[in-house]
């Protein structure tokens, strides 16, 4: 399917490549991805409720050669997560899942962004890090 669509990058969920995968499993999976002519670009959604889980997410992403984590760190871990972004040079796209978010006032930000786009006005986007931060609503 990805070849028919002409895609070059792919994102995996834990379903495709387990967070606790061994280096051998990661290498085997990456070989299959590369043989298909794809780049494993990102992984997620990864929930991070402790510093240990943030560390695990970044180690996983680095081992798999991912350039981005689609993640949901707890609010109190945002500064720690940002330090890991700088240390690993791996971006984090914060996401809202089931209407909840680790980023305060995300629903208000989404509503303001939507209203501004509907009115064709430019939107001021705020960043938590020097890297891009993406807050996207789920589409049904």
Brief synopsis:
The protein contains five helices and four strands.
CATH architecture of the domain at 42-118: 3-Layer(aba) Sandwich
- What's the number of helices? 5
- The strand line-up of the biggest sheet is 1-2-3-4
Q: Main β-sheet: number of strands, strand sense, barrel status? A: 4 strands, parallel
CATH class of the domain at 42-118: Alpha Beta
Structural class: alpha/beta
Q: Report the sheet-strand fraction.
A: 15-25%
Rg measurement, Å: 16 Å
Describe this structure in words.
The protein has a domain at about 40-120: Rossmann fold (3-Layer(aba) Sandwich), CATH 3.40.50. It has 5 helices and 4 strands. It has helices at about 1-5, 25-35, 50-65, 80-90, 105-120; strands at about 10, 40-50, 70-75, 90-95. A 4-stranded parallel β-sheet has the order 1-2-3-4. Helix 2 links the parallel strand 1 (about 10) and strand 2. The radius of gyration is 16 Å and the shape is globular. The model is unreliable at about 120-140 (pLDDT under 50).
What layout of secondary structure does this protein have?
Elements (H helix, E strand, L loop, with lengths): L1 H4 L3 E4 L10 H13 L3 E10 L2 H13 L4 E6 L4 H11 L2 E4 L11 H13 L22
Helix pairs in contact: 3-4
């Amino acid at each position: 399917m990805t070849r028919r669509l002409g895609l070059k990058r792919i994102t995996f969920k834990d379903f495709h490549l387990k967070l606790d995968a061994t280096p051998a499993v990661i290498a085997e999976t990456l070989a299959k991805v590369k043989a298909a002519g794809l780049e494993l670009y990102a992984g997620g959604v990864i929930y991070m409720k402790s510093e240990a889980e943030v560390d695990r997410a970044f180690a996983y992403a680095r081992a798999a050669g991912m350039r981005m984590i689609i993640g949901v760190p707890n609010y109190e871990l945002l500064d720690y997560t940002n330090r890991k972004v700088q240390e690993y040079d791996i971006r984090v796209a914060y996401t809202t899942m089931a209407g909840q978010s680790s980023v305060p006032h995300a629903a208000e930000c989404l509503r303001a962004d939507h209203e501004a786009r509907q009115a064709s006005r430019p939107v001021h986007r705020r960043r938590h890090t020097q890297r891009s931060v993406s807050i996207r609503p789920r589409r049904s």
